[in-house]
Each structure stands twice: as structure tokens, then as C-alpha cells.
Amino acid sequence: MCTATGSTVIDFAGRVHSVQDRCGYTLFRSSLIPGFQVLGMFQERRRRDVSFMERVMLELASGVQISLEQGSRVLVNNSLVKLSATAMMVDSVELSKDQSGVTAKISAFNYTASVLFDGSTALIHMKAAFRQDSCQDRFCSDHEFCGVRSYSGQTGCICRAIFASKYQSTSSFGEPTACAHKAASLTLAKCLLEDKAIDFSVLHLNDEACKGEMDNKTHMVTFNFDSNNPCGTVVMANNSQIIYKNTIMTRNSSTFDMINRHNPVHIDFSCFYSKPDIKNLGFKLKDSSVTQRIASGEWIYNLTMKAYSSPETNEAFQVKDDVQVDQKIWVKLKTEGLDDKMVVAVTDSCWATDQPAETGTLRYDLIINGCPNPADSTVKVEDNGWGTSNSFSFNTFQFIGTNGQVFLHCKVELCVRKGNVCIPRCGQAERRRRSALSKNKDENPALIQLAWTY
């Protein structure tokens, strides 16, 4: 109880205060009854240096002011109200008058505040309309205690101060997001949620079927999702990360719901994963170039096969150079020691195997009958049959499930120059150079090999 009489105020803790001037002082204000406060208005009487309780002012959350005056008079927003022993409601305040003075009562949640003013003394009472034994059958976790919530006046498990302090500094409701491989979880404290008038049972993730699960021992509530149950998770990506994002939110009210007593909630939580590195599988040429000395009838010549990084064939790969899978390379087949006025070199075929032998278990054709393999659009053949050298290009590859080595074989034939009969007619089915070569068949075609390894 708080008592204000004459120029003395005795507060709820029993401390005595003396009013020296002619002002208004707040005698009562509590978060248990939001928006309500009681002020004592003091004025001098016979002596200028002593003030006395003159009247009591009640201010309500609605803005209404009720003044308890001398002579049991009551003003509501400066208008006189006549009272009797029968209680009269003004806004949310119950007013009555008897021989002891004027009494005003206001209730909120489970609390009631009453003010009695007899013209010289104000008595203020605050009482709770709950039984302390309501905690007897309630289980609270180690970080909670049973008490009355300030905002609702209802009994429940309240967070202990030390436990709550580590989350209040970050304005959070629980632990940071726990991220695992293709999964994430967010754990919140039930008492922290209830302290903000949030009922965890109405919360869900993007998918309304995914709700929080409360541990009955710790009263911690966990929301989680994984690849098997994504719960509406949104997957995004930037240059370096893959982001899994979900949201804890309040259940949408149905059209039949008129009211609710829960604060709206929107808590985003995300997991960030680094994008997996795209590993470029490279290889090294085992030989920068290969040269063979060939004897074919009266012709004795050198045949060289060399790999290049550009179509101009002026930048040859070196043994130490790395080449990436699916990288385009150019291969030049060049002869020395031939009379280009009499014969030309024709690359009849090129193929790859997984072994040094030209008849390896696995074979992949690049050039067939002097023309690109029509099944491989990366193969291009240039100047074949035009002179004593030619070239072709293709995108590198590897054999699946092998030891990583690839051997390139090419078969080169000589053709006696006679018009354009030595030039392969690629794409023309009616007459190929084979008819011309049959008369000038090279009895000793050259085989040459170039290899790379991963």
C-alpha cells in the first residue's frame, strides 16, 4: 500500500518522502496495468513553505482524466460527476462514494488497483487476483522459474535473468542457426517467446506443415529442415555461395478467426555453403612432338606430329604445359623430304585409344577416310590432300573409367598429285578419293602416335 497525507508520502516499500513544493507527483504507475497512473497534486495552505495533498488525478490509457477533489467531488475530463454508494463505471474505472471518501478501482489482467481519497489522505492498494499455489503443478526447466507474466497477469514459466541476458543483448530468441550438410535447424527458448506474447504452437516454416518441436525437459523449441523435408526452403546462389533460406512465421488466421492474442512473427534464418570448386581436369602431353622416319617405295621422308594451342600453329605445347579437358587443340602433320610437286600427304584416319597399341580396347575415331567424324562436331580438318602437310583440331577428352592415358594415332598416306584427286570429298558420297588412290595406292602408309595423360 502507498499512503499520501499532508506533505508526506509513504511508498509501497515503506520509505517516507516529504513534499516541499507545489507540484504534481506520480504516486503509482505499473506495467501490470498499462497506461494507468495516479498523481498527487499538492498545494500550500496557511504556510507558503508547506504543501498538502489537494487532489488525486487518475490518468487512463484512453486519455481520460479523473480528478478526485475535496468534498468528495469527482471530475471526469473537467466535468462534474455525481456519485453514490452504488458503483459507477467511467471508462474502465469503477467509482463509488461513502462516508470514508471516494474510491476508484481499475482492473487489468489479474490485478486490481484501488485509490481511496477522503480529502486529505490517499490510500493506494495493488492486489493480484491469483493463487500462489498455481505454480505447484507446473514444471519449469532449469533456466526458468514459475511466476506471473507482467503483460498478461497469467502464471507461467519465466526466463531466469542470467539465461535471458545472453539473448537480450542480440535481440534474439535463442541459439544461432545450426547448419549441416543439406540441413539446418534453429532452436528458440519458449520462455523468451512467451515473454513477447508469442505462442510457439502457432509458428511454422514456409511450409505450414513444418512446426517447431519442443523438448519437454528444456522447453527449447526447434525448427528444422533438410533435403528430405525442405519445408519450403528457398535455395539461392551468388558468385561464391549457395544459400538455403527459410522463415519462421505466424500461422495465417482463417476467415473465421476474428481476434488473436499473439504478436506476429517473421524470423528469417539461412545457411551459407561455399560453392563446390569446379575442378578443371587437365592433362600433360607426354611428348611435345613426335617425328618418324618413313620409307615408302622410293620415298624416304620424315613425318612429324605436333600439338598447338592456336589455329595459326605457331605456339606449340610443351611437355610441362597443362591442357584442360574439352580444350581445343590443333594437331599438325608435316612431312619433310618429299617433292610436293609430285606427291601430297593425306591423313586417312586418326583415332584415340586407351593403350599405346593402335588396336586398344577402347577406340574413339576423330578422322575417318580423310574426313571429320560426323558424330563429333568439334573435329575440323584443314588442307588435307593439298600438300605435304595438313592439320586438324578437336576438343580434348578422357576415357571414362580408365587409367587417365589417351593415345592419339594417325594414319598418313602418300598420294601422287594428279589434279585434285587426292583431296577427300567430305560430305560427297558419290565419288571419294578412294577411287583415285586405288591406282596410286601407298603400300607403306605411315602410322604416328601422340599421347597425353591426366
Question: Summary?
Answer:
The chain is mostly beta strands and 454 residues long. The chain has helices at residues 161-168, 190-195, 434-437, and strands at 2-5, 8-10, 16-18, 24-29, 37-44, 51-59, 65-68, 74-76, 79-81, 88-90, 93-98, 101-108, 111-117, 121-128, 144-148, 155-159, 178-180, 183-189, 203-204, 213-214, 220-226, 234-237, 241-250, 266-274, 282-285, 289-296, 299-308, 322-324, 328-336, 343-353, 363-368, 371-372, 380-382, 389-395, 405-416, 446-453.
Topology, please?
Layout: E1 2-5, E2 8-10, E3 16-18, E4 24-29, E5 37-44, E6 51-59, E7 65-68, E8 74-76, E9 79-81, E10 88-90, E11 93-98, E12 101-108, E13 111-117, E14 121-128, E15 144-148, E16 155-159, H1 161-168, E17 178-180, E18 183-189, H2 190-195, E19 203-204, E20 213-214, E21 220-226, E22 234-237, E23 241-250, E24 266-274, E25 282-285, E26 289-296, E27 299-308, E28 322-324, E29 328-336, E30 343-353, E31 363-368, E32 371-372, E33 380-382, E34 389-395, E35 405-416, H3 434-437, E36 446-453
Antiparallel strand pairs: 1-2, 1-14, 2-3, 4-5, 5-6, 6-7, 7-8, 8-9, 10-11, 11-12, 12-13, 13-14, 15-16, 17-18, 18-21, 19-23, 20-21, 22-23, 23-24, 25-28, 25-36, 26-27, 27-29, 29-34, 30-31, 30-35, 31-32, 33-34, 35-36
Structure, explained:
The longest helix is centred in the middle third of the chain and has 8 residues, at 161-168. With 454 residues, this protein is mainly β. The chain folds into three domains: 2-128, Protein Transport Mog1p, Chain A (3-Layer(aba) Sandwich); 135-274, Zona pellucida, ZP-N domain (Immunoglobulin-like), CATH 2.60.40; 282-453, Sandwich (Immunoglobulin-like), CATH 2.60.40.4100. Mean pLDDT is 82; it is low at 253-261, 277-283 and 430-439. The strands form seven sheets. An eight-stranded antiparallel beta sheet has the order 3-2-1-14-13-12-11-10, with no helix packed on it. A seven-stranded antiparallel beta sheet has the order 28-25-36-35-30-31-32, with no helix packed on it. Strands 4-5-6-7-8-9 form a six-stranded antiparallel beta sheet, with no helix packed on it. The chain is rod-shaped. It has helices spanning 161-168, 190-195, 434-437; strands at residues 2-5, 8-10, 16-18, 24-29, 37-44, 51-59, 65-68, 74-76, 79-81, 88-90, 93-98, 101-108, 111-117, 121-128, 144-148, 155-159, 178-180, 183-189, 203-204, 213-214, 220-226, 234-237, 241-250, 266-274, 282-285, 289-296, 299-308, 322-324, 328-336, 343-353, 363-368, 371-372, 380-382, 389-395, 405-416, 446-453. 4% of the residues lie in helices and 47% in strands.
